[in-house]
Structures are given as C-alpha cells and as structure tokens.
Design a protein that fits this description.
With about 375 residues, the protein is mainly alpha-helical. The chain has 3 domains: about 160 residues, Hypothetical protein af1432; about 120 residues, Orthogonal Bundle (putative deoxyguanosinetriphosphate triphosphohydrolase fold), CATH 1.10.3410; about 70 residues, no CATH class. It is built from 17 helices and no strands.
C-alpha cells in the first residue's frame, strides 16, 4: 500500500528503453554493483586503515551488510526489496579514503572552495563522475534512487537549512528541486538509512573487540548490549570471547531489526499512509526505532565514540591519514601537472576553484592503498615511479 511501486517510478533523466528482464530498481542495483566507485569500496575503511588487518570491515563489506539488513526489513514491511538494496549498496560510494578522517581532511582542504560532503559526493559520482555510457555522464539512476541518496539523513532543505547552504554538489545538480528536498525520503530509503545505523553500531562492537580497543567485560554496563552479552555467556559458558562476540552481535542485530519493524508498523497504523508519496509528505519519518531503543542506544554510541573512535591507536591512524591527504591535496593544487591523465588536462586549464574540485574528486576516489602509494611516489625520494 505504502511501498514504492516500480511500475510508478518517475523514471530517469535520460530516456532509456525498459529492460525485458529487470525492473527499474533492479537495473539501478546492477549499475551500482558494476560501477568503479563501488569496486573501490573494497579498500576503503571506516575506522581502521586497510593494511591494519584483513578481518576489519571495509566500506564494501559494510555496504553488503547494510544491504542484507535492508532487504530483510523491506521484506517484512512489504516494501520494494530491490530499491532498498540498491540504496544500501550505493549509500557510501562518496566516501574518500581513510574513513571519517579522510572526509574531515578533505572538507578542511576544500574550506575555501565550498567544502566536501560524502553524501553530496555520492550524488556527484552517480550523476557525473562515473562515465560508462556513450550518451550521458553518470549512471542515469531512477528518480527514486537519486532521491534516497540525497536524503539519506532526512530532508536536506528546511527552515534551518536553506537551499543556498547546501553542499556544492547538491546545488549544482540541475534537478535537485525535482527531488523534493524539503520532504522525507521514500520508505525504502528510510529503511536503508536506519539499516546503516544498525550495521555500523553493532559491527563496530565486533571490530572494536577484535582490535583490542575494549573488552566484553567493559560492555556489560551498557543498556541492551550488556544484557545480550551476559545472556550469551550464561547460555554458552564454554565459548571463547570471539565466539561470544559473534553470537551477541548476531542477536543484537536481530533485536534492532525487530524494534524497527515493530515501531514502523505501529506508525503505519497511526498515520495510515496510502502511498510512497504520502510517506514523503509526513511530518515525521515513517521508519523509525522506538523511543525506548533510541534512548538506550545513545549510551552505546557514546561508548564507541570514547573507546573506539577516539582511542589513541585510531587517533594515530587518523593523524597520519590526514597528513597524507593534506600533502596530496597541496601538491596537486599547486602543481597540477603532477596529476595523471585525464585529471591533469582538466586541472591545468581550470580556475583555482575548479582545479581544487578536480583534485578533490581525484583524491576522494582513491582507495586507502592507492592514496598511500601516491604519497610515496610524490614524497619518498627512493620511490622513482
């Protein structure tokens, strides 16, 4: 009833013949999977740098986990699974190397040139930077996919966020106002956004324990999380901590999913939206966690912020990563002839502001490993190539 119907899709900005075998949203998903930016996610990390270990999550494995959660929730709620999956797979494509440290540094480097925002960069990638088709730039995704990516964090225009304050990539997209930026996203996009929260909250617990940043015992006082870990230890006293972590995180993901589907079904009964358009026009999100879970998960977020994201080992990696990206940005901006083709040709002929955006696009597309290699090639006297 309130699901997005692929038969009613608002289409693509460049006309294409329909597929004989796939719905529009299935084609979107496939285009995302086959894109260069998606493949690069395999060596872009969230908290750790790629070489720190093979078992920590990358942007790619995280996106796959978000997609699995989103499909499960969409299926339970009777939504379009393919659209939810496509949005989940694409949501992190705009992230630069080195996780949030990389984003912070690029935003700082671009401070005089309208900044950097990874959600805006995702839109820039799928509408401009991915060049795979002879008749247009970008992936030519459906209206529904673009709308969901732009509004990953909710409405982007409102009383406190006028259109003029939006990131440059949003403002420069000629069809942004067609995406109804003042409204909420459709139901599948809301599912994908909260599936992202479920995935990173719980998987950061797993990665933090594996990295030795904190122990299971230190989680025991946290609401919900402590109860689940304690229950696993009582039920399986013979398990080692690694197996306890696996089982507890699996249960926690299920708990988060059940809460979200339960609260969303409650809101469906309360607000009774009759279409995806009605969901967008609501004053509150349709898809949400319960107030009780929202309150309790704040303690987990605060714990992870202090014990993981601000851990001195992570801070050291952040510091090194930020220095590398700053040095790369500076040399490419000042000496554009050090850029490879085709970036060099565009940058050498551009104004300073446009050259800065070209350099930013080049760096944002790098994997962790490629960024480190580029840094060595440019700053290590013994690296001749």
């Amino acid at each position: 009833m309130y699901a997005t119907r692929h038969e009613d899709s608002r289409g693509r900005y460049y006309d294409e013949a329909p597929s004989a075998t796939r719905t529009p949203f299935q084609r979107d998903r496939d285009r995302v999977i086959h894109s260069t930016a998606f493949r690069r996610l395999k060596q872009k990390t969230q908290v750790f740098v790629a070489h720190e270990g093979d078992h920590f999550r990358t942007r790619l494995t995280h996106s796959l986990e978000v997609a699995q959660i989103a499909r499960s929730i969409a299926r339970t709620l009777g939504l379009d699974e393919d659209l939810a999956e496509a949005l989940a797979l694409a949501h992190d494509m705009g992230h630069p190397p080195f996780g949030h440290a990389g984003e912070d540094q690029l935003d700082e480097c671009m401070a005089e040139y309208e900044g950097f925002d990874h959600n805006a960069q995702t839109l820039r990638i799928v509408t401009k930077l991915e060049v795979r088709y002879p008749n247009h730039d970008g992936l030519n995704l459906t209206w529904e996919l673009l709308e969901g990516l732009v509004k990953h964090n909710g409405p982007v225009v409102g009383p406190d966020t006028p259109f003029e304050s939006l990131p440059a990539a949003f403002r420069e997209f000629p069809y942004l106002k067609d995406l109804e930026p003042e409204q909420f996203a459709g139901p599948e996009a809301q599912v994908a956004a909260l599936s992202d929260d479920i995935a990173y909250n719980n998987h950061d617990i797993d990665d933090g324990i594996a990295a030795g940043l904190f122990t299971i015992d230190e989680l025991m006082d946290l609401p919900i999380v402590g109860d689940v870990f304690r229950g696993v230890r009582v039920e399986y006293p013979h398990l080692n901590d690694r197996m306890v972590s696996y089982e507890a995180v699996r249960r926690l993901i299920g708990l988060w999913i059940n809460d979200l589907t339960g609260e969303t079904m409650r809101r469906v009964k309360e607000y009774n939206p009759q279409s995806a358009a009605a969901v967008r026009a609501m004053d509150v999100p349709l898809v949400a966690f319960s107030e009780e879970l929202e309150t309790r998960q704040r303690a987990l977020r605060a714990f992870l912020y202090e014990r993981m994201y601000k851990h001195y080992k992570v801070n050291r990696m952040r510091s090194k990563a930020k220095r590398m990206l700053k040095d790369l940005f500076d040399i490419f901006l000042q000496e554009p002839d050090t850029l490879p083709s085709p970036w060099r040709m565009d940058a050498t002929q551009a104004t300073e502001a446009k050259r800065a955006r070209i350099v930013c696009d080049y760096i944002a597309g790098m994997t962790d490993g490629f960024a480190m290699d580029e840094y060595r090639r440019l700053y290590d006297p013994e690296a001749l190539r």
